[in-house]
């Protein structure tokens, strides 16, 4: 099915188009012309639909090149449904085009967009009545907020299926008579020659002296041409104006009448929330607010987390010497016990101070209605990397912990989107990786270098997203986001959501963490680290130029990302990393650790969510990526 968006400039066509346009939206020129239009394919109710965003058009009778091309497209391209997008706050002017589109007798839906703007101006429109007048469905919408877009497309689909055609509205009696008589003179041959348009439409174009349709006749002066001139003259005589002016003022008159019959004017109103929302959703200020809100959000969480984390970890690490007193530290049982304690400590030190406030804050933002707005703001951007705007939610969660992030990909409808979002989410630096970035790069090099890593990370994720979506082409589901109204968050609901997400961490990731730490202790106990270092030396020492001892730390990093750092300190035998490693080595090491193979807990969740094959792919993909990036870092930084 092919759907075309038609409407005046700035009525919101492109905004509607962008809601469903995937990363494969293509901009083309009309054949041989400089005028552009956009085309995309998307999945609507299980069927592939083509959507065309035509250039803004005031009229179907025009000398403007863009408008002519838009009209030609409608006539020629086998469009199944036309969506006439109207700016509801400028209704009377817009209806003239609607009347002309109805003359084409194509299945049509009217989208009464910018209802918010109309309300603000105090314009109330009787939608049912308008729909009755035109015999075509009218769907109210606020395109910038996604409101009504879903309904618009499902209605368009239905109209296209049923080939439902609206009413043509008659002009004044005498004009209508002339139109009817001229229509009767038009032969079938003519119509076929002119792309199968209705006789009445063609008759109107003749009366309007439309140069495109008249071109043939002016030269030939044939029979029909004489008749056209004859009828043009009738109108001219009875109305005292050129026939094209007669037709256009008829239309103007009709649309004014319709406008007056469906509109009632009330007091304009504007609320403070609307005002705030306009800033938060503004195409420029919206991103600035987003940045500020998240800057505050992270600072608050990590500021608070730090206060709690240090005494907590302190407490746990004081436990180990206590045990040392009762159990000989060189025994197997001591290794096991200290491994378990480290695992418990790691979990508590991540969960309590960071994950809990992070998830709770996020639940509050979600309940408030801000999270869907972020998805909305970034929707167009995420479409460009082949994902849906909703994918931003797992990505944001990913900055806390990859495990709940991957679980959150369930909100995406298509399996392909879930897969791509999961792979990308594993690359987002979680709280554990953040510790590495801060403790190594920010501490030993500079905070700017740490920031660079974050920016590089985002760029790599974007490029990887693009690559993955090219590898797995699929027509994105026409899933449209709709912005809910703001509402006061409930602490109870937020706590329940937080618990639900934390449960996933506590019962999936944490046990693995404890097992991981224990295995790590055992490896040390049995002194197998040397073999591991030797085994990894081609990668660590030859390719990346790192000290050979980092081999084991990378293995431990798979168990738990921040272990890479803790083990690094242990492996190089000093807590002053800068004494042993150069800035380049620190950077190379960090980049590698950030990107390579996700941690065991993540792998376990991935396995459950996307299956073993795709999990293996993710592991290999991130490993190769990390190797390439770290090698580049070694030589460039
Ligand atoms: N207030 C309001 N603004 C809208 C709405 N839909 C689109 N806009 C804005 O109107 C402007 C024109 O929209 P655009 O989609 O480019 O119109 P086009 O020229 O028809 O493609 C943009 O700034 C949009 O953000 C809406 O429903 N309400
Ligand atoms: Mg546009």
Can you summarize this structure?
With 637 residues, the chain is α/β, with parallel strands linked by helices.
The biggest sheet, with number of strands, parallel, antiparallel or mixed sense and barrel status, is:
7 strands, mixed
Fraction in beta strands: 5-15%
* Main structural class: alpha/beta
Q: Which ligands accompany this protein? A: guanosine-5'-diphosphate, magnesium ion
Poorly predicted spans: none
Spatial sequence of strands, sheet with the most strands = 2-3-4-1-5-6-8
Q: What is the overall number of helices?
A: 30
What is the CA-CA span between the terminal residues?
Answer: 53 Å
Give the overall average pLDDT. Answer: 85
Tell me the overall shape: elongated
The total domain count is 3
Strands, total number: 9
Mind telling me the C-alpha Rg? 33 Å
Description of the structure:
With 637 residues, this protein is an alpha/beta fold. It has three domains: 2-169, P-loop containing nucleotide triphosphate hydrolases (Rossmann fold), CATH 3.40.50.300; 173-265, Orthogonal Bundle (Helix Hairpins); 278-480 and 489-636, no CATH class. Helix content is 67%, strand content 8%. It contains 30 helices and nine strands. The chain has helices spanning 13-20, 65-76, 91-103, 115-120, 127-134, 149-162, 173-185, 188-193, 199-207, 211-220, 223-239, 243-262, 272-280, 285-326, 332-368, 370-377, 379-384, 392-398, 402-408, 415-427, 431-444, 447-471, 491-525, 529-543, 550-559, 563-572, 577-580, 583-595, 600-610, 612-636; strands at 2-7, 26-29, 36-44, 47-53, 81-87, 108-113, 123-125, 138-140, 263-265. Strands 2-3-4-1-5-6-8 form a seven-stranded mixed beta sheet, with helices on both faces. A hairpin with a 2-residue loop joins strand 3 and strand 4. Helix 3 (91-103) packs across helix 12, helix 25 runs antiparallel to helix 26 (563-572) and helix 29 crosses helix 30. The longest helix has 42 residues, at 285-326. The radius of gyration is 33 Å and the shape is elongated. The chain starts with a strand and ends with a helix. Residues 13-14 line the site of magnesium ion.
